[in-house]
């Protein structure tokens, strides 16, 4: 309910700000014993931009994910990926192949963004349907981005102020 409002505000902010670097990654999620893939785009600050669930991990799925992400958030300057060849093939179709970077530890930002999702997934005792996974992934990303701030980058006082502001904004959305 509130995730769409938060997402709209974030999307407007991202369009006005140049996106320097995106980190793309996919993770395996089991639904009723069947393997599905959750594709995720994370920006250079660690905020999850987009989540997309597919049954396959091929060029077609990567292309759809990239087009959806770029349509909503614009084109980034650099796309950091792992060595999955589907990304390269999809970017060649789009015309972004020169913007792709791959490396051994370059994609740690995206890998670490999976951890809060995995914690919540475990608490929920997994997923039953692909649709519920897609809904949960998009809402979880919006809420997590809204409340998460890098504690190590600010003083305790500023951290508490930003958390209080986020909570006040959340309560304003909930009251409406």
TrEMBL record:
Record-linked InterPro entries: DDE_dom, IS_Transposase, RNaseH-like_sf, RNaseH_sf, Transpos_IS6
Alphabetical GO biological process terms: DNA recombination; transposition
Single annotated GO MF: DNA binding
Function of the molecule: Involved in the transposition of the insertion sequence.
Domain (DDE) ranges: 20-148
Domain of life: Bacteria
Source species of the chain: Ruegeria marina
Name of the protein: Putative transposase
Key words of the record: DNA recombination, DNA-binding, Transposition
């Amino acid at each position: 309910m509130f995730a769409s409002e938060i997402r709209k505000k974030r999307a407007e902010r991202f369009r006005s700000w140049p996106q320097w670097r995106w980190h793309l990654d996919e993770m395996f999620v089991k639904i009723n014993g069947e393997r599905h893939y959750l594709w995720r785009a994370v920006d250079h600050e660690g905020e999850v931009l987009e989540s997309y669930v597919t049954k396959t991990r091929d060029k077609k799925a990567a292309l759809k994910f990239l087009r959806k992400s770029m349509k909503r958030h614009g084109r980034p300057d650099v796309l950091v990926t792992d060595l999955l060849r589907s990304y390269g093939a999809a970017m060649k179709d789009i015309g972004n192949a020169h913007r792709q970077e791959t490396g051994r530890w370059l994609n740690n930002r995206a890998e670490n963004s999976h951890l809060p999702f995995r914690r919540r997934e475990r608490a929920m005792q997994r997923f039953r349907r692909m649709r519920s996974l897609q809904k949960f992934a998009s809402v979880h990303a919006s809420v997590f981005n809204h409340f998460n701030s890098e504690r190590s980058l600010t003083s305790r006082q500023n951290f508490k102020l930003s958390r209080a502001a986020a909570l006040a904004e959340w309560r304003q959305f909930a009251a409406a």
